[in-house]
Amino acid sequence: MGRPDRATRAAITQRRADAIDLRLAGVDWLTIGRKLAAARAINSDGIAYPQGYGIEKYRQGLEQPSDKRLIELACKDSQ
Question: Over the stretch 57-66, which tens digit does the pLDDT of each residue have?
Fold first, then answer.
């Protein structure tokens, strides 16, 4: 996997900003992880988040991140 293009980097930056905004609003880690997930089935809005958590697995039709992994990813994005 090479360096992401400009549009991908912008989407990742937006995802990280959204994670921080949600955390500052008092949203718990699991809810943040679910809101920012790539898979429609996991995403609490029912819409795949652009460059969301598990995007590569989602594109390949593989199993999506567990709740524990979603929490880890949300925490990492909020640092």
Answer: 888 888 889 9
Instruction: At 64, list the tokens.
Output: 């999506």
SS3 58: helix
**Could you read off the pLDDT of 30-55 as tens digits, one per residue?**
999 999 998 888 887 888 888 898 88
Please tell me the distance from the alpha carbon of residue 66 to that of residue 70, in angstroms, as a whole number: 6
* C-alpha span between 3 and 63 (Å, rounded): 24
Closest CA to 30 of 62, 79, 66: 66
Distance, CA of 28 to chain centre: 14
DSSP for 6-48, written as a single string: HHHHHHHHHHHHHHHHHHHTT--HHHHHHHTBSSTTTSTTSSP
Q: What is the pTM of this model?
A: 0.85
